[in-house]
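Listing S7. Sequence submitted for prediction.
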Amino acid sequence: MKDDGFLLIDSLIALKVMLIILTFLIPTILYLNKLDYSTDDHLSFVRNLYIETKSNNSIEEILSSKNYTITGDKICEVKTNMCIKTK
């Protein structure tokens, strides 16, 4: 028997391959998007902390503004609870 087109099994195999590809592709895209947003937030935090440390004379002025706290070896922003480790 000679067929001039796709069989049903060919269509199902193609559909299964597409579903497998999309099953891995969509979560990867969502994870990368989330990672990009969290990296942007962290970069913004570090940038603001750098600007604030350069504009103030001492660490006491930064702490008196109540935007940042120092716990152990970390400087944390109060409203976002993001921390950066000091050297």
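Caption to Listing S7: primary sequence and predicted structure tokens for the chain studied. The chain has a mean pLDDT of 84. The first strand starts at residue 68 and ends at 71.
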